[in-house]
């Protein structure tokens, strides 16, 4: 009987070790980490039977209540991955990059978040809340107008996105670093080969990048 209790206890400790060794790029919600009540009860009985001084260290009867842990991890991971895919995120070994068109977030020459952009930013907030690592928000513009003006506009837009995520999505402001690059890092040409305006290219350059670190 005692051997059975010891094996049960070792099994539960093994599950708890598995939990801690799972990659923590994305955290789990508290209410998703629980142990079946029956296993919880048996674990406490096993601890009491062994006594507080048994083993390599003094045992405590304080046990976490965890239920459906594997299902919770799987569901959480699938939801995060689905949201990343919906936002068109690009993944590297060190980060996730979410690129949001400036024309969706802001009106022309403005830095106030558009109301119809809030659903997209809410999804970004879900991703950031699930992560425990720093986030960078980088504003970009096209080359229309003065370079200094565009740089300042890109900074204001990055800051506006940060403030929305802090006030509306509950993100810790200390985790987010906003910056602006102005027109200095285009992803497309602002002009055509003949020198005429490339409106499609300029539209691609007006963007906000959200970089979520993995470490």
Can you put this structure into words, describing what you see?
- The chain has two domains: 73 residues, no CATH class; 127 residues, 2-Layer Sandwich (60s Ribosomal Protein L30, Chain: A).
- Strands 1-2-5-3-4 form a five-stranded mixed beta sheet.
- It contains seven helices and five strands.
- Strand 3, helix 6 and strand 4 form a beta-alpha-beta unit.
- The protein is elongated and about 85 Å long.
- Helices cover 46% and strands 13% of the residues.
- The longest helix has 23 residues.
- Helix 1 crosses helix 2 and helix 5 crosses helix 6.
- By secondary structure, the chain is an alpha+beta fold.
Number of DSSP-assigned strands: 5
What is Rg? 25 Å
User: In CATH's first tier, which class of the largest domain applies?
Assistant: Alpha Beta
Helical proportion, percent range:
40-55%
Name the shape in a single word.
Answer: elongated
Strand content: 5-15%
Number of helices: 7
List the secondary-structure elements in sequence, H or E.
HHHEEHHEHEHE
Mean pLDDT: 80
Largest sheet, order of strands side by side?
1-2-5-3-4
CATH architecture term of the largest domain:
2-Layer Sandwich
Biggest sheet architecture? 5 strands, mixed
CATH topology of the largest domain: 60s Ribosomal Protein L30, Chain: A
Q: What is the CATH homologous superfamily assignment of the largest domain?
A: OmpA-like domain
Runs in which pLDDT lies below 50 for 5 or more consecutive residues are: 18-23, 30-34, 59-67
